[in-house]
Specification:
5 helices; two-stranded antiparallel ribbon
Length: about 140
């Protein structure tokens, strides 16, 4: 059973998946930085200088006016963190779009490879067919 497990791990698909997960985690960090450090300030600018991440509604508990979301949570208040939720949606949409573009590129590459392979097969088949050869043999035997 241990040998079967080693064989399973050594297969290319498992290793490819592991590399994909590691790169995906690193990419997620980049997207979080993009949204948090670049997109949210722009959205905040259009909202009148409000830090978009710190947009929340207090459901219960006491929070000083103007306190950040982190300070509200540390105070033990129940908050509805709409800004953080919208930021998570933006993160998801960016990641989903990049994954879509990646899959689209891979599919186009596979189609191009398949098309090239079909062209090679067609080029190999451009010689006389079996029927043509048999007809030629028949005709030469008649002479």
């Amino acid at each position: 059973m241990l040998q079967e497990f080693k064989d399973f791990i050594a297969k290319g698909n498992v290793m490819d998946m592991a590399v994909g997960i590691i790169i995906g985690a690193a990419f997620t960090a980049i997207v979080k930085s993009l949204v948090g450090d670049l997109i949210n300030p722009i959205i905040g600018l259009f909202m009148g200088g409000i830090d978009f991440v710190n947009v929340y509604w207090v459901l219960s508990g006491e929070v000083p006016d103007g306190a950040s979301l982190e300070a509200a949570r540390e105070a033990g208040a129940a908050v509805f963190a709409i800004g953080a939720f919208i930021m998570a949606i933006i993160n998801f949409l960016i990641i989903a779009f990049v994954v879509f573009m990646l899959v689209r590129y891979v599919n186009k590459a596979k189609e191009a490879a398949a098309k090239a392979e079909e062209e090679v097969v067609e080029e190999e088949e451009t010689g006389p067919s079996e029927l043509d050869v048999l007809l030629e043999i028949r005709d030469s035997l008649k002479k």
